[in-house]
Amino acid sequence: FWQSCSRIINVTNPLITVLNVADSGERASMGFIYDAIEKAKKEMILAFDNRECDYSPYLDIVNHVQDKFHSPLHAAAYYLNPAIYYNPEFPMSNVVQKGLLDCIETLEPDVAHQDNITRHKAFYEDAVGDFGRPMAVRARESLSPATWWSMYGSDHPNLQRFAVRILSQTCSMTTSDR
Q1: Pairwise CA distance, residues 139 & 151, whole Å
Q2: Residue 14 and residue 141: Cα distance in Å, rounded?
């Protein structure tokens, strides 16, 4: 009985964290949901001491749900969130890259602006200009991602507008008040 309870806790604690992030009414959560899911999967693996036979059935379910509800918007917000992107452990994957490009093509109808955004994202990636200011570096963790972009992305207005548009989105897991 207690071993089953322990398994349930090992699986549900990380998932409850994801639900809290997704359903947070206090802040725009789009920039955090993809990261929260990835962290939850890592926590589940560690909770089962990296024993694949123990965590695999649960991870399969989480991956299935993530695949079903995944949106390029989540991947783009993950990439554009400075608190996550500038973390040395940030993994740039094909899913994130494709999600970002899909969002650029979908949300920005002007081809010249699309090209401008993709060209200027290198400045963000390399923390060039205002992105690399000491004040901007300190604010990566303390400001909301959309506010950070509003303050430090002004040298690249198309990219700034695109980032703020995505990072201002909220997520919700419930359809009614608690």
Answers
A1: 10
A2: 21
The answer to whether the beta carbons of residues 121 and 128 sit under 8 Å apart is no
Q: How confident is the model at residue 171 (pLDDT cuts 50, 70, 90)?
A: low
pLDDT at 42: 86
* pLDDT-based confidence at residue 7 (cuts at 50, 70, 90): confident
What separation in angstroms does the CA of 135 have from each of 34, 106, 131, 148?
Answer: 26, 32, 9, 10
| Whether 148 contacts 133, CB under 8 Å | no
- Two structure tokens written together for 129: 């200009």
Q: Which amino acid is at 100?
A: L
The pTM (predicted TM-score) of the whole model is 0.76
- Contact criterion met (CB below 8 Å) for 55 and 47: yes
Q: Among positive and negative, which fits the CA dihedral 22, 106, 160, 128?
A: positive
The amino acid occupying position 80 is: L
44, 18 Cβ separation under 8 angstroms: no
Q: At what angle do helices 94-107 and 157-167 cross, to 10 degrees?
A: 100
Count Cβ neighbours within 10 Å for each residue of 28-44 and write b for 16 or more, e otherwise: bbbbbbbbbbbebbebb
